[in-house]
Write a structure and sequence with these properties.
Number of strands: 3
Organism: Gadus morhua
Radius of gyration: 15 Å
Structural class: mainly alpha
CATH topology: Phospholipase A2
Family: Belongs to the phospholipase A2 family.
EC number: 3.1.1.4
GO molecular function: calcium ion binding; calcium-dependent phospholipase A2 activity; phospholipid binding; signaling receptor binding
CATH architecture: Up-down Bundle
Strand order of the largest sheet: 1-2-3
Shape: globular
Largest sheet: 3 strands, antiparallel
Order of helices and strands: EHHHHHEEH
InterPro entries: PLA2, PLA2-like_dom, PLA2_Asp_AS, PLA2_histidine, PLipase_A2_dom_sf
Number of domains: 1
Length: 140
């Protein structure tokens, strides 16, 4: 098991995006998350609009909506202005490719959003033609 928490995050970045990256690497060990999901379809990467182009893009849309819900949650509203920059603690079991979240209520919410996204990514097909997708093709 590999643990990602404040000590590791402090040496790199106390960011939820690091947590998402770690969760993806736990569930999909041979993937480079930024390369594969950083600019994919209409929702993976910065921003997001229109209709998702496929199941993988739908995973990103769902993740975006989950973060929106975190920002509106009572546990988070007092100190959370951006879930992408909020760190949390997680443990990866590489033998089962599962992640366990252990945090305060807000961190748990965000960690669970990332966990669901990582599991969704692991079950969705990556279509190379949707990588570096032209955002102008995403219907508004």
């Amino acid at each position: 098991n590999i643990e990602y928490g404040p000590s590791l995050l402090a040496s790199r970045s106390k960011r939820s995006l690091w947590g998402l990256r770690s969760q993806i690497e736990c569930t999909m060990p041979h993937i480079w998350p930024l390369l594969h999901f950083g600019d994919y379809g209409c929702y993976c990467g910065k921003g997001g609009s229109g209709i998702p182009v496929d199941a993988l893009d739908t995973c990103c849309q769902t993740h975006d909506y989950c973060y929106d819900a975190a920002m509106a949650d009572k546990a988070c509203t007092a100190y959370l202005d951006n879930p992408y920059t909020y760190g949390y603690h997680q443990t990866c079991d590489k033998s089962t490719k599962t992640v366990t979240c252990s945090n305060d209520a807000c961190q748990m919410f965000i960690c669970e959003c990332d966990k669901k996204a990582a599991m969704c990514f692991s079950q969705a097909k990556f279509i190379p033609a949707h990588n570096h997708y032209n955002q102008e093709l995403c219907s508004k």
